[in-house]
Specification:
Layout: E1 8-14, H1 20-31, E2 36-40, H2 49-55, H3 69-80, E3 85-91, E4 96-104, E5 109-113, H4 121-124, E6 129-133
Parallel strand pairs: 1-5, 1-6, 2-5
Antiparallel strand pairs: 3-4
Length: about 140
């Protein structure tokens, strides 16, 4: 870890229902609201509303192409530099991004929660640590 960095970025990954979000929320609770933030990969799904209407439910939401990882990477870089970012608000009913967004302010520890975050080199290179949760 580079000790010059003021923001530690930790990726938390694993399969669906493996406990990623529970772990991330508990870690945030232990570290405290002032020190820790969670950014969810799910917020970065691409807007698929028109495709769902046109094609039905044929979109693979578990494929990396369904997520705008370039924007997530950009936001992680900004957070590390101490800048707030507008995190998209994804609507899972309509499969669209809402016009609203959540402003994420930088915190000393930034947790990234998502099943696919370790599949992308542009995200992995930004992580100081990564945790993979495997259940059997």
């Amino acid at each position: 870890m580079d000790l010059q960095k003021t923001h530690l970025i930790v990726g938390i990954s694993g399969g669906s229902a493996s406990g990623k979000t529970t772990f991330a929320r508990e870690l945030k609770r232990v570290l405290g609201e002032k020190l820790c933030a969670i950014v969810y990969q799910d917020s970065y799904y691409l807007d698929h509303g028109k495709l769902v209407v046109k094609c039905g439910e044929d979109i693979n939401f578990d494929h990396p192409d369904a997520i705008e990882f370039s924007l997530l990477a950009q936001h992680l870089k900004f957070l590390r530099q101490g800048h707030s970012v507008p995190v998209p608000d994804y609507d899972f009913v309509t499969h669209t991004r809402k016009a609203d967004f959540q402003v994420q302010v930088p915190k000393p520890v930034i947790l990234i929660d998502g099943i696919l975050i370790l599949s992308r080199p542009e995200i992995r290179e930004l992580l100081d640590y990564s945790i993979f949760i495997k259940t059997t």
